[in-house]
Amino acid sequence: PPPAAGRCEPGRLQRGDLLEVPRTLFIHFGIYLGDNRVAHLMPDILPAFTDDRRQIERVVTNKRLVLGVLAKMASIRVDSVEDFAYGGSVLVNHMDRLFKDRVLGSEEAARRAEKLVGATAYSLLWNNCEHFVTYCRYGAAVSLQTDKFCEAVKRVIRDQRSVLAAALVGLASIVCLGLAPSTTLPTILIPFLLWMAG
């Protein structure tokens, strides 16, 4: 049976465990491969410029990460638990409670992660670290963080006050700033159409 969900205790990790590290704005995810190694998906621009494994395997800097997000490039890489956690606390198999009936075997999860190591496309909404681990451990690439973000955006779009504010800003830009209606009209119509579609 899968180990109980909870905080990471050194030496208690098992191959195929799903690891989570809460960050300020998001949660980072990885799959434990054994021997203090974690496979995780990281946005990274460096593989686009070099094949030098020694450079690529260094810890990803913030600049590499941001440029990877902008360029929609990433790699599924293997790092030590310490480098993966980057000073944060690690939760183990915390998501299992949400996917109780879908947990694959630990060895299957680890093998899936190992097969995917290497360069990959990146999308904040459609292919991030959470999609990677949920595919490996549960067989379906989903991201609960993305779902929450999209729901928040939908709430803003559906809110009539947002539509009214967009319309007022559009009209004010036409009247006060002298902007052409052809460039300002989309700021009025797009939120209105999205609100109507919602």
Descriptive notes:
The chain is of the alpha+beta class and 198 residues long. The chain has 2 domains: 126 residues, endopeptidase domain like (from Nostoc punctiforme) (endopeptidase fold (from Nostoc punctiforme), Alpha-Beta Complex), CATH 3.90.1720.10; 39 residues. Helices cover 44% and strands 18% of the residues. The protein has 8 helices and 7 strands. Strands 1-6-2-3-4-5-7 form a 7-stranded antiparallel β-sheet. The longest helix is centred in the last third of the chain and has 17 residues. The chain is elongated. It starts with 5 loop residues before the first strand and ends with a helix. GO terms for molecular function: phosphatidylcholine-retinol O-acyltransferase activity. Keywords: Acyltransferase, Membrane, Transferase, Transmembrane, Transmembrane helix. This is LRAT acyltransferase.
List the SSEs and their pairings:
Elements: E1 6-7, E2 18-22, E3 27-34, E4 37-43, H1 53-56, H2 62-71, E5 73-80, H3 81-85, E6 91-92, H4 106-116, E7 118-121, H5 129-138, H6 144-158, H7 160-175, H8 181-197
Antiparallel strand pairs: 1-6, 2-3, 2-6, 3-4, 4-5, 5-7
Transmembrane segments: 163-196
Organism: Crypturellus undulatus
GO molecular function, one term: phosphatidylcholine-retinol O-acyltransferase activity
